Amino acid sequence: MVVGSVVSRMTDRAAAVVRETAETEIDVTLDVDGDGEAAVDTGIGFFDHMLESFAKHGLFDLTVECDGDLEIDDHHTVEDVAIVLGEAFDEALGEKRGIVRYADRKVPLDEAVAGVVVDVSGRPLFRFDGEFSQASVGGLTSHMAKHFLRSLATNAGLTLHAEVTGENAHHEIEALFKATARALDDATRIDERRGGDTPSTKGEL
Questions:
Q1: Distance of alpha carbon 31 from alpha carbon 58, whole angstroms
Q2: pLDDT score of 2
Protein backbone atom coordinates (compact mmCIF):
# COMPACT_ATOMS: atom_id res chain seq x y z
CA MET A 1 0.00 0.00 0.00
CA VAL A 2 1.17 3.52 -0.84
CA VAL A 3 0.77 5.58 2.33
CA GLY A 4 0.37 9.16 1.16
CA SER A 5 0.40 10.67 -2.31
CA VAL A 6 2.28 10.05 -5.54
CA VAL A 7 2.26 13.24 -7.62
CA SER A 8 3.30 13.47 -11.27
CA ARG A 9 3.38 16.23 -13.87
CA MET A 10 1.32 15.28 -16.95
CA THR A 11 1.85 18.21 -19.34
CA ASP A 12 2.16 21.96 -18.92
CA ARG A 13 -0.13 23.03 -16.06
CA ALA A 14 -1.60 19.58 -15.59
CA ALA A 15 -0.97 16.93 -12.96
CA ALA A 16 -2.04 13.51 -11.71
CA VAL A 17 -2.08 12.47 -8.06
CA VAL A 18 -2.69 9.04 -6.56
CA ARG A 19 -3.18 8.77 -2.79
CA GLU A 20 -3.75 5.58 -0.84
CA THR A 21 -4.20 5.28 2.91
CA ALA A 22 -6.08 2.99 5.26
CA GLU A 23 -9.05 5.36 4.93
CA THR A 24 -9.23 6.31 1.24
CA GLU A 25 -7.93 5.44 -2.21
CA ILE A 26 -7.98 8.44 -4.55
CA ASP A 27 -6.97 9.08 -8.15
CA VAL A 28 -7.15 12.66 -9.45
CA THR A 29 -6.15 14.30 -12.73
CA LEU A 30 -6.27 18.06 -13.22
CA ASP A 31 -5.69 20.32 -16.21
CA VAL A 32 -5.72 23.96 -15.13
CA ASP A 33 -6.17 25.11 -18.75
CA GLY A 34 -9.11 22.89 -19.54
CA ASP A 35 -12.66 23.24 -20.83
CA GLY A 36 -14.57 22.50 -17.63
CA GLU A 37 -14.98 18.78 -18.30
CA ALA A 38 -15.37 16.58 -15.21
CA ALA A 39 -15.77 12.90 -14.33
CA VAL A 40 -16.24 12.49 -10.59
CA ASP A 41 -17.15 9.55 -8.36
CA THR A 42 -16.62 9.92 -4.61
CA GLY A 43 -19.63 7.99 -3.38
CA ILE A 44 -21.25 11.21 -2.08
CA GLY A 45 -23.72 12.51 -4.64
CA PHE A 46 -23.83 16.13 -3.56
CA PHE A 47 -20.03 16.28 -3.21
CA ASP A 48 -19.72 14.92 -6.77
CA HIS A 49 -22.07 17.69 -7.92
CA MET A 50 -19.95 20.33 -6.16
CA LEU A 51 -16.71 19.07 -7.72
CA GLU A 52 -18.34 18.98 -11.16
CA SER A 53 -19.54 22.55 -10.60
CA PHE A 54 -16.04 23.55 -9.46
CA ALA A 55 -14.58 22.19 -12.70
CA LYS A 56 -17.29 23.72 -14.89
CA HIS A 57 -17.05 27.23 -13.48
CA GLY A 58 -13.25 27.24 -13.16
CA LEU A 59 -12.78 25.76 -16.64
CA PHE A 60 -10.62 23.02 -15.16
CA ASP A 61 -10.61 19.51 -16.62
CA LEU A 62 -10.95 17.23 -13.61
CA THR A 63 -11.28 13.54 -12.90
CA VAL A 64 -11.76 12.23 -9.37
CA GLU A 65 -12.10 8.60 -8.32
CA CYS A 66 -12.38 8.02 -4.58
CA ASP A 67 -13.08 4.85 -2.61
CA GLY A 68 -13.44 6.03 0.98
CA ASP A 69 -14.66 4.71 4.32
CA LEU A 70 -18.16 6.13 3.97
CA GLU A 71 -19.45 3.46 6.35
CA ILE A 72 -17.86 5.66 9.05
CA ASP A 73 -18.80 9.13 7.74
CA ASP A 74 -17.94 11.59 4.98
CA HIS A 75 -14.96 13.24 6.70
CA HIS A 76 -12.05 11.23 5.31
CA THR A 77 -13.43 11.22 1.77
CA VAL A 78 -13.97 14.98 1.60
CA GLU A 79 -10.73 15.87 3.39
CA ASP A 80 -8.54 13.52 1.36
CA VAL A 81 -10.04 14.58 -1.98
CA ALA A 82 -9.26 18.18 -1.01
CA ILE A 83 -5.70 17.20 -0.08
CA VAL A 84 -5.16 15.47 -3.41
CA LEU A 85 -6.79 18.26 -5.43
CA GLY A 86 -4.61 20.80 -3.64
CA GLU A 87 -1.49 18.77 -4.40
CA ALA A 88 -2.55 18.57 -8.04
CA PHE A 89 -2.93 22.35 -8.28
CA ASP A 90 0.45 22.87 -6.62
CA GLU A 91 2.17 20.49 -9.03
CA ALA A 92 0.34 21.75 -12.13
CA LEU A 93 1.25 25.38 -11.41
CA GLY A 94 4.89 24.56 -10.75
CA GLU A 95 6.93 27.73 -10.17
CA LYS A 96 3.82 29.82 -10.86
CA ARG A 97 5.64 31.94 -13.40
CA GLY A 98 3.53 34.58 -15.12
CA ILE A 99 0.32 33.96 -13.18
CA VAL A 100 -2.03 36.76 -12.12
CA ARG A 101 -1.69 35.45 -8.53
CA TYR A 102 -4.52 37.40 -6.80
CA ALA A 103 -8.26 37.24 -7.37
CA ASP A 104 -11.52 38.18 -5.68
CA ARG A 105 -14.91 36.75 -6.67
CA LYS A 106 -18.46 36.93 -5.35
CA VAL A 107 -21.09 34.49 -6.58
CA PRO A 108 -24.82 34.50 -5.74
CA LEU A 109 -27.16 31.54 -5.82
CA ASP A 110 -30.70 32.67 -5.14
CA GLU A 111 -30.68 34.06 -1.57
CA ALA A 112 -27.11 32.92 -0.84
CA VAL A 113 -23.95 34.88 -1.62
CA ALA A 114 -20.39 33.57 -1.30
CA GLY A 115 -17.21 35.57 -1.56
CA VAL A 116 -13.67 34.24 -2.03
CA VAL A 117 -10.37 36.12 -2.05
CA VAL A 118 -7.32 34.09 -3.05
CA ASP A 119 -3.58 34.61 -3.25
CA VAL A 120 -1.63 31.81 -4.96
CA SER A 121 1.17 32.66 -2.58
CA GLY A 122 2.77 29.38 -1.58
CA ARG A 123 1.89 30.34 2.01
CA PRO A 124 -1.14 28.37 3.17
CA LEU A 125 -3.68 30.27 5.24
CA PHE A 126 -7.45 29.90 5.49
CA ARG A 127 -10.08 32.15 7.03
CA PHE A 128 -13.84 31.60 6.92
CA ASP A 129 -16.79 33.74 7.94
CA GLY A 130 -20.31 32.35 7.89
CA GLU A 131 -22.61 29.57 9.00
CA PHE A 132 -24.54 26.90 7.12
CA SER A 133 -28.30 26.94 7.47
CA GLN A 134 -28.77 23.16 7.55
CA ALA A 135 -26.53 20.47 9.03
CA SER A 136 -26.23 18.37 5.87
CA VAL A 137 -27.08 18.28 2.17
CA GLY A 138 -27.42 15.07 0.14
CA GLY A 139 -24.99 12.97 2.17
CA LEU A 140 -22.47 15.81 2.72
CA THR A 141 -22.13 17.24 6.21
CA SER A 142 -22.34 20.99 5.65
CA HIS A 143 -19.33 21.97 7.77
CA MET A 144 -17.19 19.68 5.57
CA ALA A 145 -17.48 22.32 2.82
CA LYS A 146 -15.46 24.64 5.06
CA HIS A 147 -13.01 21.83 5.85
CA PHE A 148 -12.67 21.07 2.12
CA LEU A 149 -11.60 24.66 1.45
CA ARG A 150 -9.14 24.61 4.35
CA SER A 151 -7.53 21.37 3.14
CA LEU A 152 -7.44 22.62 -0.46
CA ALA A 153 -5.74 25.86 0.60
CA THR A 154 -3.22 24.06 2.80
CA ASN A 155 -2.13 21.63 0.10
CA ALA A 156 -2.25 24.01 -2.87
CA GLY A 157 -0.31 26.70 -1.00
CA LEU A 158 -3.12 29.24 -1.09
CA THR A 159 -4.03 32.16 1.10
CA LEU A 160 -7.81 31.82 0.91
CA HIS A 161 -10.45 33.93 2.64
CA ALA A 162 -14.06 32.81 2.19
CA GLU A 163 -17.43 34.02 3.43
CA VAL A 164 -21.03 33.02 2.89
CA THR A 165 -24.53 34.13 3.84
CA GLY A 166 -27.88 32.59 3.00
CA GLU A 167 -30.84 30.54 4.16
CA ASN A 168 -30.33 27.25 2.32
CA ALA A 169 -27.21 25.13 2.83
CA HIS A 170 -27.38 23.69 -0.69
CA HIS A 171 -27.21 27.20 -2.12
CA GLU A 172 -24.57 28.34 0.38
CA ILE A 173 -22.21 25.45 -0.33
CA GLU A 174 -22.70 25.59 -4.09
CA ALA A 175 -22.02 29.33 -4.14
CA LEU A 176 -18.80 28.71 -2.17
CA PHE A 177 -17.55 26.09 -4.62
CA LYS A 178 -18.40 28.30 -7.60
CA ALA A 179 -16.77 31.38 -6.09
CA THR A 180 -13.64 29.39 -5.27
CA ALA A 181 -13.50 28.03 -8.81
CA ARG A 182 -13.91 31.46 -10.40
CA ALA A 183 -11.30 33.01 -8.11
CA LEU A 184 -8.80 30.24 -8.81
CA ASP A 185 -9.43 30.49 -12.54
CA ASP A 186 -8.71 34.23 -12.41
CA ALA A 187 -5.65 33.91 -10.16
CA THR A 188 -4.00 31.09 -12.09
CA ARG A 189 -4.35 32.68 -15.53
CA ILE A 190 -1.19 33.71 -17.33
CA ASP A 191 -0.62 37.47 -17.48
CA GLU A 192 1.28 37.98 -20.73
CA ARG A 193 2.62 41.33 -19.52
CA ARG A 194 4.82 39.52 -17.00
CA GLY A 195 6.81 37.76 -19.68
CA GLY A 196 7.06 34.61 -17.57
CA ASP A 197 8.33 36.34 -14.42
CA THR A 198 7.19 35.17 -11.01
CA PRO A 199 4.72 37.71 -9.54
CA SER A 200 6.71 38.42 -6.38
CA THR A 201 9.46 40.82 -5.38
CA LYS A 202 11.15 37.80 -3.82
CA GLY A 203 11.53 36.23 -7.25
CA GLU A 204 9.68 33.06 -6.27
CA LEU A 205 6.44 31.84 -4.71
A1: 11
A2: 57
The crossing angle, in degrees rounded to 10, of helices 75-93 and 143-156 is 30
Distance CA 137, CA 38 (A): 21
> Can you list the residues of the chain whose pLDDT is less than 50?
none
CA–CA dist 77, 70 (Å, integer): 7
| Residue 68 CB-half CA count within 13 A | 22
CB 187 within 8 A of CB 99: yes
Q: For residue 27, what is the enclosing H or E element?
A: strand 24-31
Q: What is the pLDDT of residue 175?
A: 98
pLDDT confidence of residue 10: 64
The pTM of the full predicted model, rounded to 2 decimals, is: 0.94
CA distance 46 to 23: 20
- Please say whether the beta carbons of 153 and 86 come within 8 A: yes
